[in-house]
Amino acid sequence: MSLKHKLALVTGSTSGIGLGIAKALAAAGADIVFNGFGPVEQIERLRRETEAAHGVRTEYSAADISKPAEVAAMVAEAGGGQGPDILVNNAGIQHVAAIEDFPAERWDAVIAINLSGAFHAMQAAIPAMRRRGWGRIINIASAHGLVGSAQKSAYVAAKHGIIGLTKVAGLELANSGITANAICPGWVLTPLVEAQLRDRAARNGRELEAEKRAMLAEKQAMAEFSTPEQIGALAVFLCSEAARTITGAPMSIDGGWVAQ
Q1: Domain boundaries, the chain
Q2: For residues 101 and 96, what is the distance between their CA atoms, to the nearest angstrom?
Q3: C-alpha span between 179 and 173 (Å, rounded)
Q4: What is the pLDDT of residues 34-61, one digit of tens each?
Q5: Can you say whether the dihedral through the CA atoms of 93, 96, 99, 100 is positive or negative?
Q6: What pLDDT, in 10s, does the model give residues 98-117?
Q7: Which of 111, 243, 256, 252 is nearest to 182 (CA)?
Q8: What is the DSSP letter of 83?
Q9: Which fold has domain 7-186+227-252?
Q10: d(CA 83, CA 75)
Q11: Catalytic (active site) residue 60
């Protein structure tokens, strides 16, 4: 399938899952608005390489997803003011602590970026999608949007909220040509997770491969990480004509995590 002439805005797309999704959408022909943090030269290289590899146009927004005004401006300015045809709300942060020890400011930051940022982006993007009669909203939730884990109260609350928000959007937009769905990854082998694995392996005195198996076994039935590329392929499918009646749905890609 081709997404040529579609504009995709992917938050948190300068690394990890967001980058995998942006690359997959570009490979399908979509122009890309990157968003996230990183050195200017690294982001410019990413833009040039994406354009050269796929013959698409790219833009970059440094909008802070915790700030509603910056999110609204990013959406409004995308594509020279046309706004995105495809909105992928991927940006997220994590903090781990027991509820009684959880710093209030970290709770507020996780909710602001992981949940409220997606709401503000959707609110800004939907009017133009309605006018065009076509749009795709993909919210990156998590297995933690469907089940809980100890010491992750803010993240679990935000990801449960993202799935609820997605369901409401699916209902409200059902006959507009716009779909809204949530992708729920389990363990994904991103640079951030690889760093966590190295730290855990050092702390537990294990080889890296043994630590990988132990981490996966804590939650998943399948002893295999998902990859950003696989999540990107699922996002491309959700943008396709074949997925036009899939809306308001949480889509698990989690190695059997929530099947247990």
Answers
A1: 7-186+227-252, 187-225
A2: 10
A3: 7
A4: 999 999 999 999 999 999 999 999 999 9
A5: negative
A6: 999 999 999 999 999 999 99
A7: 252
A8: -
A9: Rossmann fold (3.40.50)
A10: 6
A11: no
Q: Please calculate the CA angle 103-109-112 and round it to the nearest 5 degrees.
A: 140
Angle between helices 40-54 and 16-27 (to 10 degrees): 30
* pLDDT value, residue 195: 87
Residues 147/115, Cβ–Cβ less than 8 Å: no
CB contact at 8 A, 154 and 110: yes
Q: Where are the alpha helices (DSSP H) in the chain?
A: 16-27, 40-54, 68-77, 104-111, 117-132, 153-172, 191-204, 208-219, 228-238
Q: What is the pLDDT of residues 208-240, one digit of tens each?
A: 999 999 999 999 999 999 999 999 999 999 999
Token match 């036009």: residue?
A: 244
Split at pLDDT 50, 70, 90, the class of 76 is very high
Which residues, in sequence order, are CB contacts of 124 under 8 Å at separation 6+? 71, 72, 75, 76, 83
Residue 12 CB contacts under 8 Å (≥ 6 apart), including other chains:
18, 35, 36, 65, 90, 91, 92
State the chain's maximal CA–CA distance in angstroms. 58
Residue type, 206: R
Calculate the dihedral angle through the C-alpha atoms of 253, 255, 257, 260, rounding to the nearest 10 degrees: 120
| Active-site residue, selected from the candidate residues 155, 187, 225, 257 | 155
What the block records as the tokens of 15 is 């690394």
Question: What's the CA gap between 243 and 245, in Å, rounded?
Answer: 6
